[in-house]
Specification:
Blueprint lengths: L2 E2 L2 E4 L6 E5 L10 H7 L4 E5 L8 E2 L8 H14 L5 E6 L1 H12 L4 E7 L8 H20 L2 H8 L6 H4 L4 H8 L4 H11 L18 E6 L3 H13 L3 E6 L6 H4 L1 H11 L1
Parallel strand pairs: 3-4, 3-6, 6-7, 7-8, 8-9
Antiparallel strand pairs: 1-5, 2-4
Helix pairs in contact: 1-11, 2-3, 4-8
Length: 261
């Protein structure tokens, strides 16, 4: 076994099941507030993805790639007798969730993707992104983590998130990660490393709900294009939110989960 997954299971196993996949630098705690509002109606599984939280990777660097991570999560679902289930993925976890949906459609009855993408379309785009992400990974390996987090959240993508009164809570959760492990995740499962999923969207038969924040213009554009390529996809734009909807407006996020699932 090349993975020792740390996971948290909340709710009644007799209720409908949801697997939650967190974003980069997150953990199984990523959706805690949402899960606390959902766990009476659903059985909720949060997992620390490779390179994050308390999950241990016992194999080589290939264990951090999207295909291998996806297969390992599928194995975990089988071990827990958790499939078929619903699936929720945020940002990096949304890219992973889309990969799993397209490769293991029998495992998931419906899928909600928050601020996610199918990756990059061309090899040139992928190479450029990989070069950038390797530079960021080097900073993770050499900088103080708190300094790295401060710079990371200065990106325009997170402007509205930083204004949230509980933003410091996110920083505390992120600091529980090992920066050397985060660097491995970034080197092997970043947008530039993952297989492009754009051409596979037309074949998807699993109902998809795409959530993006109204302030998140880049991902509004990406997800609008997904809808044109995938007949099973529906897009909801959430007002007064940026990239991290489940934190910035947890009640609206939970409402979408309930209504869709």
């Amino acid at each position: 076994m090349r993975y020792q997954f740390h996971y948290e299971l909340r709710g009644n196993r007799e209720q409908p099941r949801i697997l939650f996949c967190h974003g980069f630098m997150g953990s199984s705690q990523e959706f805690d507030e949402a899960i606390s509002l959902l766990c009476e109606e659903f059985c909720c599984l949060g997992v620390d993805l490779p390179g994050h939280g308390k999950t241990k990777v016992l194999g080589g660097d290939e264990c951090y790639t999207m295909p291998n991570t996806a297969h390992a999560l599928k194995d975990l679902l089988e071990q827990l007798n958790f499939e078929p289930c619903f699936l929720v993925g945020y940002s990096m976890g949304g890219r992973l969730a889309l990969y799993m949906t397209l490769h293991f459609p029998q495992c998931f009855s419906k899928v909600l993707l928050e601020s996610a993408s199918p990756g990059l379309k061309t090899q040139a785009e992928q190479l450029k992104r990989r070069q950038r992400d390797w530079q960021i990974a080097e900073k993770l390996e050499t900088e103080d983590l708190l300094t790295f987090l401060s710079n990371w959240y200065n990106q325009p993508l997170f402007t509205s998130l930083k204004q949230h009164p509980n933003f410091e809570q996110i920083i505390k959760i992120r600091q529980q990660n090992n920066p050397l492990e985060l660097a491995k995740s970034l080197r092997h499962m970043s947008t530039g490393c993952q297989p492009s999923l754009w051409e596979s969207l037309q074949h998807n038969q699993v109902p998809l709900l795409l959530l993006v924040g109204d302030y998140d213009h880049k991902f509004k554009s990406i997800n609008s294009e997904i809808v044109t390529r995938c007949t099973e996809a529906k897009l909801n734009v959430i007002a007064d939110c940026g990239h991290n909807i489940h934190f910035e407006n947890v009640n609206e996020f939970v409402k979408n989960v309930r209504d869709f699932f």
